[in-house]
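User: Please fill in residues for this 244-position structure.
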């Protein structure tokens, strides 16, 4: 694979796909020294051989499936037991350098990870109003963004800095940070429990990470066909800002 590694056996197989198109499987098996013991007619012979280990933890695979056209086979299912390595040069060897690809996760998994990371960051920065402003602004922007795919790294670099960014990335594994996913906005709203209300008198109320209708939170009622909002609590901090 590179000058630090022994030779590997690269196998490429092509199959008929269940749907129209082809299925392509790439395997690499690392070279390894093995002993071959032979015993015949009272004579024992021990040989040192170079072989390719098909069960090694360093083996790698990639499965691509699709039509033979410019928009086909743009994604793959990958086996790489080293992708979680702390050393990025090792973790990126197969997926990034050889396949020229990057990790992605399902929309549901990515949305759940994003919501959990934002909630964790909000909790860890409860004493830092500037960091919490960044997190609240990031939530609002993500809910209305037209960008089809995000990653944890992309959210951090686009919306967050300093303590907010550090808290946001604190519990995300290295291999998850660059994984791309589509944001499921309905699931995101359900997980994040973030609401922003604009009242008829121009007052804006933002309610992140609270259950609407819960005691001590924001209560929504309907009176004569009009939805009305009520919020009550002890003021802990007061700011003069140029925008809501």
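Assistant: Residues filled in for all 244 positions:
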């Amino acid at each position: 694979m590179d000058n630090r590694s022994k030779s590997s056996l690269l196998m490429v197989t092509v199959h008929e796909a269940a749907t129209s198109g082809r299925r392509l499987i790439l395997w690499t098996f690392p070279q390894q020294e093995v002993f071959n013991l032979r015993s015949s007619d009272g004579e024992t012979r021990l040989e040192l051989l170079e072989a390719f280990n098909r069960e090694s933890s360093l083996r790698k695979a990639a499965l691509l499936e699709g039509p033979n056209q410019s928009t086909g086979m743009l994604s793959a299912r990958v086996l790489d037991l080293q992708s979680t390595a702390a050393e990025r040069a090792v973790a990126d060897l197969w997926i990034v350098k050889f396949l020229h690809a990057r990790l992605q996760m399902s929309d549901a998994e990515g949305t759940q990870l994003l919501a959990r990371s934002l909630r964790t960051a909000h909790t860890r920065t409860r004493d830092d109003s500037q960091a919490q402003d960044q997190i609240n602004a990031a939530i609002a922007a993500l809910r209305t963004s037209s960008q089809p795919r995000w990653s944890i790294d992309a959210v951090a670099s686009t919306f967050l800095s300093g303590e907010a960014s550090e808290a946001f990335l604190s519990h995300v594994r290295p291999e998850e940070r660059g994984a791309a996913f589509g944001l499921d906005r309905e699931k995101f709203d359900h997980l994040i429990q973030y609401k922003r209300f604009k009242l008829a008198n121009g007052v804006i109320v933002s309610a992140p990470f609270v259950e609407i209708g819960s005691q001590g939170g924001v209560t929504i009622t309907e009176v004569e066909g009009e939805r009305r909002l009520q919020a009550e609590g002890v003021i802990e901090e007061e700011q003069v800002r140029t925008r809501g």
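For context: Residues 194-231 form one domain.
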